[in-house]
Design goal:
single chain, 479 residues, alpha+beta, 4-stranded antiparallel sheet, 40% helix, 19% strand
Amino acid sequence: MAVETRPAEAPGRVLSTLNVDGSRRWIRPRPSPGAGWRRRRVLAYVLMFVFFVIPYLELNGRPLILLDLPAREFSLFGTTFLPTDTLLFMLLFVSTGIGIFLLTTLYGRVWCGWGCPQTVYMEFLFRPIERLLEGGFRGSTRLDRHGAFAGRRPLKYAIYLLLSSFLAHTFLAYFVGIHQLVHWVRGTPGNHPAAFLIMAGTTLAIFIDFTWFREQTCLVACPYGRLQSVLFDRRTLIVAYDPRRGEPRMKGTRPRPAGAGDCIACGMCVRTCPTGIDIRDGLQMECVHCTQCIDACDEIMVKIGQKPGLIRYTNPDELAGLPHRLLRTRVLLYPVALAISLGLFVFFLTSRAATEVTLLRGIGAPYQMDGERVVNQVRLKFSNRNRDERGYHVTLVGVPDAQLVNPLDPFPVPGGHTLTTTVFVLSPRSAFDDGTRHVMFRVEDGHGFGRNYVHPLIGPQDAGHGRARGPETEAEARH
């Protein structure tokens, strides 16, 4: 006899955005405009303004921030970084990582609730528009039941699409520059199909994120919450519910029976949470420390004549009644490591040369023969970090039997740019020993820059009758 089986249901909610049967639970948080909310709103609008205005600002004749990937140049606050600045990038990323670790150890997920673009734009741009058009929590819930295209929801989607397009264009300006972006916008997509597709894809991604994916970005996609277990400790400042004061919970306000906790089980901390969790269940990965539950609970405490702070910024040791200690091992080690990495970054940044020259072999055959002379093609890559244009003069040093053919001398390179030129070195066949000869190039710009570079030339294997002429080591080049 066949036994009918049904899929097992989860004993509880696995994610705050999933119902027990696996269907999507749409979170429509009720805003709680308390002190924390007002501070977050001011910070959010400041961050939005900074994001929108940065592409229009310049420093030292360069965009304030420009991540030019095709040219492989980054301009950050008036300083140009090139692909050869690998050490600087490594130190910058290490410093950023250590800074995040330190901030998280001290203040928990303060970045998620106060500075993350996902939270800032969701809570202070897209959700306010949704509440205005749909009529708040009840209006949105009613539209959820009647279908996605009921009521004013199509108008909301149209506004979301316009905002997503604006954010995508602003984001693209960080990579191409505002002048190039304006030129593309005034033209047709056929003139720049790749840029148009990138912009359209970014617009679609932003639209889907804030229209459908929403808080699931924090719950599912973002790995930061999963780092809590290794970055938090017992003294990390978190948003927490005080069970010693709040338990046992009991509905009703007055009169309060003897022994009842301050929590009246009103559920406002859950209804106001943008990720849909119950803060009374303890520290959870989904909590982004936005302090909305603090604002909601404080408002209720004032109404029932109790002291605010049932939900507050605190730490597990304080909730357990242990003495507060700010200093601990990781709080001491992180600043030391941060000071070392930032110090090295500043040192190498300030000590790097304003001009960087890289010598490369020519494209194609390693050498060519012109009678008894060997012709080598050498490419010189100039990175000019100066503000103004420099002309670079290239000569050969210590090899009188060699001839340098330089098609463009001096070679002009605009400030903040990297350009490559090609020169030719003609050497007698007899100057090569085992198919190799080292020559020294001298590069000068007429403004105080002058440096020697040793470069190996390739020639016939059976040519030499003695040692190759020219400097053999980098040490000789310095002399």
